Input
Amino acid sequence: MQVQEAIGSEHWNRVKKRLRAELGEDVFSSWFARVDLEDHSDGTVRLSVPTRFLKQWIQSHYNDQLVGLWKGECEGVHRIELTVRGAMRPRPIAPPAAKTLAAPKRPKVSGDTRLEGFTTSHPVVDAQAATAAVGVGRPDSSLEASRDVFQGAALDPKYTFETFVEGDSNGLALAAARQVASGSPVTFNPLYLHAAVGLGKTHLMQAVAAKVRGSGRKVLYLTAEHFMYRFVAALKAQSALAFKETLRTIDLLLIDDMQFLHGKQVQQEFCHTLNALIDGARQVIVAADRAPSELDTLDDRVRSRLSGGLVVGIQEPDFNLRRNILTTRVTQAQRTYSNFEVPEGVLDYVARHVVSSGRDLEGALNRLIAHNQLTNQPITQDMAEMTLRDLIRTSEPRRVKIEDIQRVVSKHYNVTKADLLSARRTRTIVRPRQIAMYLAKVMTPRSLPEIGRRFGNRDHTTVLHAVRKIEEMARTDTGLSQELELLKRMLDA
Output
């Protein structure tokens, strides 16, 4: 049995590696980071997840892909079984008096009811839904479910306006966030912040939420994933109407990580909520890792509504901002470690070479603090180079977007972007399209499914075929190989 478990664990690690490569880091982290292997026998792989919503989402959207990947590792696998960890918790025992009350029966619902993007068998999703399910006969169950909306996601106490370091790359976003938090009349709605990971959009969102909460106004901060959980839980608790009405009484709604909002019905409800709040002069702030026009998984109406307010991008920090971030964080660290000192030359070195994000800068500083406090060795240039060697990059490559690739390829091959996205199969269109897909795979962090969506909603297998085709041709066709290098230089320029 131990040998079988070890083999299953090795296979699962390889399956996860292939999943991460095919789906991209963002999608993999959202849906598979908390999936564990429980058992592997008799052609069935048993996986466990922490919530029923996660179980249903994976079953609806990734079951076939999981089965295919497992078959690639173990030919005998023909079925994936998902279970919820801790799902068999004992229910609370009702008081004796409750036995004399006839609780109304919940209408019987089919176990495979589909909710426009969700597959649900009507199990509870979280503690609130569990309470509603156990206490179906209580008249206030829907009210309790709606009150739970106001709890929102937890805020990090470190994320305040006082700890946010301003620079040229984030000044406009900071000014807009401060105006919203001040309670002045709504002038732009929604406020949409977009930036790559670690550049401060979540910091600003939570700073606004913390400031507004202190003013007595109703404020709700949620990630897109939490919004989905809450909405589906309300549907299952039969309190969707109360959930919607409660949402629309909020003074300030903040939704983070908008790129993870999936499901047609959830997006429709979000759009209705967005319209109701904006029409009622209530403020909405949304954050994502890219601009609304680039969120191809969103419904067109949602994208249009998000683009109708103030869209502000936060750029990568320049040297001066990185240096100021480090100085600020060192000052904060000295409140805890009074003997902690970092030479100016070391701060300059870190600011010059750790260039991707403020989060990486804080990680670098934390390493220096740990090394200093655990070894009692002073921080020097040599120590910093050794400790931070995996974070150091001599230069940050230009971030290439799929739109850039489509524009450059269209111009180079004298076709239109519409041609690249169309279903036309003529040679003059197919080859540039395959080249553009190949460049999108090798020059951007986007997953195969996302690249497919950006090229006319094509399947990820089409993208994979294009990538392999161009790779194979480039090995034998010197002219094509030179063209690809030329296009890469044009995109990097």
About this structure: The radius of gyration is 26 Å. Residues 147 and 246 are 8 Å apart (CA to CA). The first helix runs from residue 2 to 23.
